[in-house]
Amino acid sequence: MATASTTSTPRNRISARIGGIAESATLAVDAKAKALKAAGRPVIGFGAGEPDFPTPPAIVAAAQAACADPKNHRYTPAAGLPELREAIAAKTKRDSGFDVAASQVLVTNGGKQAVYQAFATIIDPGDEVILPAPYWTTYPEAISLAGGVPVKIVTGPDADYLPSVEQLEAARTPRTKALLWCSPSNPTGSVASRELTEAVGRWAAENDVWVITDEIYEHLVYDGAEAASVPVVVPEIADRTIVLNGVAKTYAMTGWRVGWMIGPADVIKAAGNLQSHLSSNVANVSQRAALEAVSGPLDAVAEMRKAFDRRRRTIVELLSAIPGVQCPTPRGAFYVYPAVGELLGKEIRGTVANTSVDLAALILEHAEVAVVPGEAFGTPGFFRLSYALGDDDLRTGVTRMGELLAEAK
Fold first, then answer.
1. Is the model's pLDDT at 10 over the cut of 90?
2. pLDDT for position 7
3. Residue 252 and residue 258 in contact, taking contact as beta carbons nearer than 8 Å
4. How confident is residue 406, by pLDDT bands cut at 50, 70 and 90?
5. Is residue 157 within 8 Å of 381, Cβ to Cβ?
6. 249 has which bridge partners?
7. How far is CA 32 from the centre of its chain?
8. DSSP assignment, residue 344?
């Protein structure tokens, strides 16, 4: 009687595609900070990009009312509530000047799903996506999951972390399919000028390159900066542009998980087909809350922006006073991205940190402050700190960190 072979090659338990995904560094740092805090340590976290304000009351009230309405206990179309898609189209026209139809809007489970679906919809295996660094940690992973190849171009503080058209052209090859554009930027807080936005859009149009533009920080700009939208500044690129956005940052709704993607009708239809199998519709109550948010006034947003602006100026001042730290002044979002390269290789409390990962670990251990190292964003030698936390914690945390780093020798 034949017996089964015991010498067959073992199969991987996790697929190569999923096994190659890196954990979100920002969420990992935030989770570690919260775990240490729960254990009784006075950790102050600058990791997650999450406003510390509550969601505005009118939005919460709309959600409470939605819970009691049985129509919200059922599925909606996978692409989202028709009235929400209409409202997002109207809000987009109001806020950025981009005139789109509701059929060009797809409501997603947060901005991350919009990012993933944008790449999955237009990228084929081997297609290249130009990715200016520093970049948000999810972008390269989403590109790779779609079978694409991230092509990193590094920018630095001298250029306000913004790429030039010459850099984009140098990175372009026959396999270039798209450019990822993010302004205001996560992680740097940089805001591209209208002139640069126009130059980039024209370059993309002339070279048949898609633009995937993340505009989720559009309302968080300071010092007279303008969040110019690529398809508005360069209308001829609109048919090859996907706009990503959501309610998370503008309305302090990170936990509600409502984002969207806007694009040509055929792209949105295809992405909707994907979503119908991937997750179906966003939770109805969250959609009703988002409808109230995008249809209502921006008064609460203005108040939050005022607080962020105050914290922005404070954190830049405090970081710039630390020997070995250079901190450009951001004009958007709620992040700073200081250079800490001068501190690498120096001894602090008996330990030599040779990378910004090592230095971040040392700061967490000895100063009980959590920051995200630049390796997570494609540029070692930097930190990202979110100033979307209370004024007292911000000042205490940076002061603690500064006292520790002053010991470097």
1. no
2. 54
3. no
4. very high
5. no
6. none
7. 20
8. T
H/E stretch holding 260: strand 259-262
Task: Report the alpha-carbon distance of residue 198 to residue 176 in Å, rounded.
Answer: 20
Task: Write out pLDDT tens, residues 49-67.
Answer: 889 999 999 999 999 999 9
135-155 tens-digit pLDDT: 999 999 999 999 999 999 999
pLDDT(2) > 70: no
* Average pLDDT for 98-102: 98
pLDDT of residue 162 exceeding 90, the answer is yes
Three-state secondary-structure class, residue 52? coil
Task: Name the CA radius of gyration of the chain, rounded.
Answer: 22
What does the block give as tokens for 260? 């969207």
Strand partners, 80: none
Query: What backbone phi and psi angles, to 5 degrees, belong to 211?
Result: -120, 120
Is there a contact between 384 and 377 (Cβ–Cβ < 8 Å)? yes
Alpha-helical segments (H) within 209-283: 230-233, 265-278
Asked whether the beta carbons of 74 and 284 are under 8 A apart, the reply is: yes
Distance from C-alpha of 26 to C-alpha of 275, rounded to nearest angstrom:
25
Q: At what angle do helices 391-405 and 299-320 cross, to 10 degrees?
A: 20
Mean predicted confidence (pLDDT) in 381-396: 96
Q: CA 49 to CA 366: how far, in whole Å?
A: 23
Does the model's pTM come out above 0.70?
yes
- At 324, the pLDDT band (50, 70, 90 cuts) reads very high
| Residue 238, phi then psi, degrees to nearest 5 | -60, -35
Measured CA to CA in angstroms, residue 374 lies from 165, 168, 349 at distances of 24, 22, 22
